[in-house]
Write a structure and sequence with these properties.
Layout: E1 2-11, E2 17-25, H1 40-48, H2 51-75, H3 82-94, H4 96-116, H5 121-124, H6 129-143, H7 149-166
Antiparallel strand pairs: 1-2
């Protein structure tokens, strides 16, 4: 779509602006003004088709966190001291779970960049909270971490919130 917009590009000595036509090229309709879509359902449909991409990035990020935790369980607790730095780096670099976790995290960031290029950040960002739910459940089932009723209520609220936001 192409539109014209009179814009004062410079002012002369008397403070008078010179009007010129500026041609703007849009891949889609401009976000506001003449030619903008007033149909909220059209915008919502465009964004909802990216939910699988959003969730794949979020789930891969959650999976990366679980892999990193598994790797660090294999390494164990260590004191943060300068003399421990290089031996710990060697242990971390040799741990396949940590390497897989870091690789998964990098891929999830690349997917997230694709998401941000396609949908509104205010629409996509709340989906990151799905990662909290997944990590909490995986922590419970994989690592036998505690899951109190307060956490279950919190997870339920997060799920309801994400469903509501995905429909907005």
């Amino acid at each position: 779509m192409t539109g014209t917009c009179p814009v004062p590009l410079w002012r002369d000595r008397r403070g008078q602006g010179a009007q010129y036509k500026m041609t703007l090229h849009y891949r889609e309709a401009p976000p506001s003004g003449r030619g903008a879509s007033n149909n909220i359902l059209e915008v919502n449909d465009k964004m909802t088709r990216y939910i699988p991409l959003i969730l794949s990035g979020v789930l891969l990020n959650a999976f990366a966190q679980v892999l990193l935790k598994k790797g660090m369980l294999g390494i164990g607790y260590f004191e943060i001291q300068f003399q421990n730095l290089f031996p710990m780096i060697k242990k971390v670099a040799a741990n396949s779970y940590i390497l897989l976790g870091l690789g998964s995290y990098v891929i999830s960031v690349a997917i997230w960049l694709l998401v941000l290029a396609r949908v509104e950040v205010s629409y996509a960002y709340p989906f990151l909270s799905v990662g909290y739910v997944v990590v909490t459940l995986m922590g419970y089932f994989v690592f036998q971490e505690s899951l109190s009723w307060i956490r279950v209520v919190g997870i339920s609220i997060i799920i309801v919130g994400v469903i509501l936001l995905s429909r907005s």
